[in-house]
Write a structure and sequence with these properties.
Layout (H helix, E strand, L loop, with lengths): L11 H16 L24 E2 L5 H12 L4 E4 L2 E3 L4 E2 L3 E4 L3 E3 L2 E2 L3 E4 L3 E3 L4 E2 L3 E4 L3 E2 L10 E4 L5 E4 L2 E4 L3 H6 E4 L4 E11 L10 E12 L2 E12 L11 E11 L3 E15 L7 H11 L6 E15 L3 E14 L23 E14 L10 E17 L18 E19 L2 E15 L38 H6 L8 E17 L15 E19 L11 E2 L11 E9 L4 E7 L8 E5 L5
């Protein structure tokens, strides 16, 4: 594929802005020096309760408390928290957006974010205490083994895929202006961050623009107006590299309530986002020239209403109109690229569509980061209707229509998707977890390419290589014919329907090499090498298929009726095991339903599910 290498000169205003940003990034870290100055460690604890830092929260402190909050072993609390004198928290404790009263014992570090901390007589903290965005009160001699640090400046953060992310980017240091009150508050920001993740069609998409949030009692208002700049294969100021995202939302209620909003967008969307996390996809692309997602362009608007309850449970309905178009693969940069070319980004169906979507999330897990028990359910139903001006190509025999029809073609379809997970605690150190993922065509015309599915990759069937054809009719991707033709198309997902079942057995383990005995003399203390995690044994089985009622041709072992599930004997199955350390895991998987497949060793930056 030949690609244009022309480069246009950046506008002078943009060059000046980038230069100013770089200068500020170099100067800003100095602003936190005074705030980081510690009180003298002279053995007196009497003055530490009033050791209140002024200025903004230093970047290293914000990252430290964020790491503690996101750690799998940390007990996380949102809102008010009261620890009775008879209770003990074993390990670290992190409280977000609420006041904390401790009368019992905490055997690790304590972090209070955007709330006040109160220690009463008899309480004990075996680690350090850090309070951001609040005050600290205690007896004259608080029983805290480590350091006590208090900053009145609020802890700024956002959430991504159930993970807390500190707003410490260098733009935020100089571009935020904030107004806060106790019961009512408003916040305005000039916000700069990445849109989602590094990929082969955008490079690193950057969003910049104003964001406004206001609160009055239980009513919240949020407004955003962001421009999107895509680095692509060069910093060119042209239509391909520009987009936008605007949102306005009113939310009524605290733990339970309703939200109404609307949004306008011109952005790149990923297909099959249910597999892997943004961090894993972006890191593979940036380091190894491997992008495990496909992308297309969405330009339009949408209105929505949602009912929410508790932590993460929501029922949502939306309706909008948008134009779909394809995105080409760009020659974006990667570190260890060598001579490895990027996988072609598959062409999408192009046209104007009206979309009605109903989705629901139910979450009863004990902890989203490290669930020990509970249910997680995410479901979505979508009805699309509109006109297709250009159909993307599929492998031989899957479509009986030209990719460039004469005039627009009316289309209407329905699609559903379900991700159901059950976590079972068998004992203090053992779990048995199950997951079923299913989705695809429900009725109407054939699904557009960007709404088709595949069962492939390390998140689904890690014992099989990513979208590699096995035989002339592949049950993982529904690819047909010669594999070289499939590779030329970019290895698109082509199935009308798919199903995947996953089972894992987990148990805790602890590594403590060389011990930690000090032989009764602290001068000879040795901490050794420690590590906590879980061992995992797993099995996965699933496949994709075509549906004759969806307009797909009859192909042996691939096409079935709308009410028929393919026999389990035709499913792909693998088994494996590994070690999960919370923030990353190392695994090995072996295909058992197909002979001749080599085992795959891989690393995950999150839990399997």
């Amino acid at each position: 594929m030949s690609m244009s290498r022309s480069r246009s000169v950046l506008p002078p205003l943009l060059r000046a802005a980038l230069l100013f940003t770089a200068m500020m990034a170099a100067l800003i870290p100095m602003s936190g020096i005074e705030a980081q100055r510690d009180s003298g460690r002279d053995g007196s604890r009497d003055n530490r309760a009033s050791d209140r830092r002024i200025g903004g929260v230093p970047r290293d402190v914000a990252l430290e408390v964020t790491r503690i909050f996101n750690a799998a072993s940390t007990r996380r609390v949102r809102g008010e928290f009261n620890l009775a004198s008879t209770d003990t928290v074993r390990g670290d404790l992190a409280v977000l957006d609420g006041n904390t009263r401790l009368a019992g014992v905490v055997t690790g570090h304590v972090v209070v974010l955007n709330g006040d901390a109160l220690l009463v007589d008899g309480s004990r903290i075996d680690g350090s205490l850090t309070v951001l965005g609040g005050t600290f009160e205690s007896p004259e001699r608080p029983n805290v083994t480590g350091e006590i640090r208090v900053w009145s400046a609020r802890y700024r953060y956002h959430e991504s895929a159930d993970t807390l992310v500190a707003d410490t980017d260098f733009f935020g240091r100089w571009s935020q202006w904030v107004r806060d009150e106790r019961s009512n508050s408003s916040e305005s920001q000039l916000f700069v961050t990445t849109a989602h993740t590094y990929n082969r069609v955008e490079g690193l998409p950057i969003i910049i623009g104003p964001r406004f949030r206001a609160r009055a009692e239980d009513t919240r208002i949020r407004a955003e107006l962001f421009g999107i700049f895509r680095t692509g294969d060069g910093l060119r100021w042209d239509r391909e590299n520009l987009g936008h995202r605007a949102l306005f939302e009113v939310r009524q209620g605290n733990r339970h309530g309703v939200a109404v909003g609307g949004r306008l967008f011109d952005e790149v969307e990923a297909m099959e986002r249910w597999q892997l996390t943004d961090a894993e996809v972006g890191l593979n692309a940036f380091l190894f020239t491997r992008d495990y997602r496909d992308y297309w362009q969405r330009h339009g608007g949408q209105g929505y209403v949602s009912l929410f309850s508790g932590r993460g449970s929501e029922l949502r309905a939306s309706y909008g109109r948008e134009r779909w178009s394809s995105r080409r693969m760009r020659d974006v940069w990667s570190i260890f690229s060598g001579d490895t070319p990027w996988r072609v980004n598959p062409a999408a169906d192009e046209g104007v569509m009206d979309l009605l979507t109903v989705s629901a999330v139910l979450d009863t897990r004990t902890n989203p980061e490290n669930p020990r028990s509970g249910w997680y359910l995410r479901g979505e139903w979508e009805r699309g209707s509109g006109t297709i001006d250009r159909f993307g190509p599929l492998t031989a025999g899957l479509r009986g229509i030209p990719t460039e029809p004469q005039g627009s073609v009316e289309t209407e379809y329905s699609r559903a998707f379900v991700d159901l997970r059950r976590y079972n605690r068998l004992g203090p150190q053992a779990q048995l977890n199950m997951r079923v993922v299913a989705g695809g065509w429900v009725n109407g015309d054939a699904l557009p390419i960007q709404r088709r599915l595949a069962v492939s990759g390390i998140d689904a069937l890690p014992g099989f290589d990513f979208r590699r054809m096995i035989g002339s009719n592949d049950v993982g991707t529904c690819a047909t014919g010669d594999e070289s033709a499939y590779i030329a198309l970019g290895r698109p997902a082509q199935c009308d329907r798919m199903v995947l079942a996953q089972l894992e057995w987990k148990g805790d383990f602890r590594i403590n090499l060389f011990g930690d005995d000090n032989y009764g003399d602290r001068r000879w203390g040795f901490n050794g090498v420690r590590g906590d995690g879980t061992w995992v044994i797993f099995a996965n089985s699933g496949r994709g298929w075509l549906v004759s009622d969806a307009g797909s041709p009859t192909i042996a072992d691939l096409t079935f009726g709308r009410s028929k599930l393919p026999p389990i004997s035709g499913w792909r199955t693998d088994i494996g095991g590994g070690f999960d350390f919370g923030s990353f895991g190392v695994y090995i998987a072996q295909a058992v339903s197909e002979s001749g497949q080599s085992p795959n060793v891989y690393v995950r930056l999150s839990r399997r599910f």
